[in-house]
Design a protein that fits this description.
heterodimer; A: alpha+beta; Alpha-Beta Plaits; four-stranded antiparallel β-sheet; B: mainly alpha; two-stranded antiparallel sheet; disordered N terminus
């Protein structure tokens, strides 16, 4: 019988809405300090009076989405959708 | 809008790594020094300006209130150091309490209104977010500055009369020294504003000083008449 191999998430692309008060530089550093996150890139897609629509790309080894989403919520970010996921068997 | 701090301060920002189930929550806030966190909150809400305004306006009020008491005592030929120190401390405590309560309530109301508008724009609650924490901290900070500024300026202004109370300084010298200290404080406040706005130091210093001089000259003239 073959053993089940653990599948790890290596990339997440999240579409989110953020308040303009929070800088994407700060947000990138906050996300990058999470365990197992190795790389973060954030791009601003749309700018509104009070908010900005951003695309967050998080890469690492064995990413934990619940933790990432909790951190985003605590930073005042509203997650709209997960647009892309990469998973692999290490 | 905050965009001007470097990554070394950013790495100490408030973030919680929550782990579901058996693993424990590790909050980086335990490692954050209080001052760095306060700076982050001030930068995030762009609150530096309002805090500076509270400091200058209320420091101005404190200094001029003491000047009014001193000049009023002179006008009525009642230059009693004990009375002046007591009245000034009483007035500055009243200003501190009024400043704290007033600033706390008004800042909180304004900032919560902004948070609620943001929640409507984001379609999400910000109760657990760093923005709500920043609002709470900035509200408290504004209230504390609003309280401390008049108290500090008033206490500095009456120092010569405190010395006079202990018979270390003659009353007349305490009177003129106190007025001089108040004028210097007012000039310094003006200079601070000039520094902030990159304007002429002397001009702003003199603007503030003139207001103080107007009170003292008026008082001294009326004192001559009464």
């Amino acid at each position: 019988m073959g053993e089940k191999q653990k599948v790890v998430i290596t990339k997440l692309v999240i579409d989110a809405l953020k308040p303009r008060e929070l800088s994407i530089i700060d947000l990138a550093a906050i996300l990058c300090s999470i365990d197992k996150v190795e790389q973060v890139s954030i791009s601003v897609r749309e700018v509104d009076v009070k908010t900005e629509t951003i695309r967050i790309t998080v890469q690492g080894n064995d990413l934990e989405y619940p933790i990432i989403s909790d951190v985003l919520v605590e930073s005042g970010i509203a997650i709209r959708s997960i647009d892309e996921v990469s998973a692999e068997k290490p | 809008m905050s965009s001007s701090h470097n990554l070394s301060s950013v790495e100490t920002l408030l973030i919680a790594n929550r782990e579901r189930g058996r693993r424990t929550t590790r909050a980086i806030s335990e490692r954050i020094k209080v001052l760095k966190r306060i700076k982050f909150y001030i930068d995030t809400l762009d609150a530096g300006g309002i805090l500076r305004r509270y400091f200058v306006m209320n420091g101005f009020d404190g200094a001029l209130a003491v000047m009014g008491i001193i000049v009023g005592s002179y006008m009525t030929r009642a230059l009693n150091p004990r009375f002046i120190v007591g009245a000034s401390i009483g007035a500055s405590i009243a200003m501190a309490v009024s400043g704290f309560v007033g600033a706390f309530i008004t800042e909180r109301a304004e900032r919560l209104r902004e948070i609620k508008e943001l929640e409507r724009s984001l379609f999400t609650s910000l109760d657990k977010s760093v923005l709500k924490q920043a609002v709470n901290m900035i509200t408290l900070l504004a209230a504390v500055i609003d309280a401390i500024a008049p108290l500090l300026f008033a206490l500095i202004s009456i120092t010569p009369f405190v010395l006079s109370m202990w018979s270390l300084l003659p009353v007349e010298i305490a009177f003129y020294s106190s007025l001089t200290i108040i004028c210097l404080l007012l000039f310094s406040l003006g200079a601070l504003l000039a520094r902030i706005s990159d304007e002429n130091l002397l001009k702003y210093g003199l603007y503030m000083l003139t207001s103080g001089l107007a009170v003292s000259i008026l008082g001294l003239l009326l004192g001559g008449v009464l």
